[in-house]
UniProtKB/TrEMBL annotation:
<dbReference type="InterPro" id="IPR005946">
    <property type="entry name" value="Rib-P_diPkinase"/>
</dbReference>
<dbReference type="GO" id="GO:0002189">
    <property type="term" value="C:ribose phosphate diphosphokinase complex"/>
</dbReference>
<keyword id="KW-0067">ATP-binding</keyword>
<dbReference type="Pfam" id="PF13793">
    <property type="entry name" value="Pribosyltran_N"/>
</dbReference>
<dbReference type="GO" id="GO:0009156">
    <property type="term" value="P:ribonucleoside monophosphate biosynthetic process"/>
</dbReference>
<keyword id="KW-0418">Kinase</keyword>
<protein>
    <recommendedName>
        <fullName>ribose-phosphate diphosphokinase</fullName>
        <ecNumber>2.7.6.1</ecNumber>
    </recommendedName>
</protein>
<dbReference type="GO" id="GO:0006164">
    <property type="term" value="P:purine nucleotide biosynthetic process"/>
</dbReference>
<dbReference type="GO" id="GO:0000287">
    <property type="term" value="F:magnesium ion binding"/>
</dbReference>
<dbReference type="GO" id="GO:0006015">
    <property type="term" value="P:5-phosphoribose 1-diphosphate biosynthetic process"/>
</dbReference>
<dbReference type="GO" id="GO:0016301">
    <property type="term" value="F:kinase activity"/>
</dbReference>
<dbReference type="InterPro" id="IPR029057">
    <property type="entry name" value="PRTase-like"/>
</dbReference>
<keyword id="KW-0460">Magnesium</keyword>
<dbReference type="GO" id="GO:0004749">
    <property type="term" value="F:ribose phosphate diphosphokinase activity"/>
</dbReference>
<dbReference type="GO" id="GO:0005737">
    <property type="term" value="C:cytoplasm"/>
</dbReference>
<dbReference type="GO" id="GO:0005524">
    <property type="term" value="F:ATP binding"/>
</dbReference>
<keyword id="KW-0547">Nucleotide-binding</keyword>
């Protein structure tokens, strides 16, 4: 007789309650009860307010700075392990600290590797995330990693725009692989921006490799932080004769002067997901929810079904 799989429980870290609520609704259940208590000095404690013994649990939370968001995920995982959860899946839509995935100069940490080890040491038995800054971060884990691609939800959104003469663009050399993957599905040409930096978040020079004249350009990237690269690329493409420039970015970090740069740029539209909550809403930003994708993958993980059909890239 086939043993019945116990129903999973879904819980949210405080920074991702809105997204977790959407994921739970798409999954077909309610979020489990948990609590975060804060001491007067800023230290905090998390607790599960219902039994999780013998269950698979999904803990949903993006780990964008500040470090309290990562710490809360670690404490939730540790609490679940000590409460005898059967499987602990960390659902991290935005995997923070991923830009530090290698030693690019002497005497610096590999933060992405450190975070991976922290999650495993806390007790995570599986990781579900989306659009890692570098694919090789999956290799930093000894546990299974389901690395989802936002192209699953972005490609239908691009097709709904009903644009002709589309050209896919990467705002830097590092994103060329992603741009070529999108172009394969859209059957379009690709252009690449080559940039030089004086220091982090400061571009000294940018050149365009390819022709955009008369084209509707779609810039693709995994994240948008200060929006300096993306807006500079959009302005450059319009100067080179592009008909329009839009951008799709999975993770809306949007720090510093990002909102002002987007408002004042030649970008017609910025399409993002809700892996990170927006600080404010502006007319040029359109949000496409990633909740149905995560809910579908979580269903498949729970029922031991293949998820390979979800990978468009």
């Amino acid at each position: 007789m086939k043993q019945k799989i116990p129903k999973p429980k879904l819980f949210a870290c405080s920074q991702s309650v809105e997204l977790a609520t959407e994921i739970a609704a798409a999954y077909g259940c309610k979020l489990g009860k948990s609590k975060k208590s804060i001491f007067s000095d800023g230290e905090f404690q998390v607790s599960f307010e219902e039994s999780i013994r013998g269950r698979r649990i999904f803990i949903i939370g993006s780990t964008f700075p500040n470090s309290d968001n990562l710490m809360e995920m670690l404490l939730m995982i540790d609490a679940a392990k000590r409460a005898s959860a059967r499987h602990i899946t960390a659902v991290i839509p935005y995997f923070g600290w991923a830009r530090q995935d290698r030693k690019d100069k002497p005497r610096v940490p590999i933060a992405a590797k450190l975070v991976a080890k922290l999650l495993e040491s806390a007790g995570a038995t599986r990781i579900i995330t989306m659009d890692l800054h570098a694919d090789q971060i999956q290799g930093f884990f000894e546990k299974p990693v389901d690395h989802l691609f936002a192209s699953t939800i972005f490609l239908p959104a691009i097709k709904d725009l009903n644009l002709d003469n589309i050209t896919v663009a990467s705002p830097d050399m590092g994103g060329s692989k992603r741009a070529y993957a999108y172009s394969k599905f859209l059957k379009s040409e690709v252009v690449i921006c080559y940039k030089e930096r004086k220091k982090a978040n400061v571009i000294s020079h940018m050149e365009l490799i390819g022709n955009v004249e008369g084209k509707n350009v779609i810039l693709v990237d995994d994240m948008i932080d200060t929006a300096g690269t993306l807006t500079k690329a959009a302005d450059l493409m319009m100067e080179k004769g592009a008909k329009s420039v839009r951008a799709i970015c999975t993770h809306p970090v949007l720090s510093g002067q990002a909102y002002e740069r987007i408002e004042n740029s030649k970008l017609e539209e910025l399409i993002i997901t809700n892996t990170i909550p927006l600080k404010k809403q502006i007319d040029k930003i359109k949000v496409v929810s990633c909740a149905p994708l995560f809910a579908d993958i979580m269903h498949k993980v729970q029922n031991n079904n293949s998820i390979s059909g979800q990978f468009l890239m």
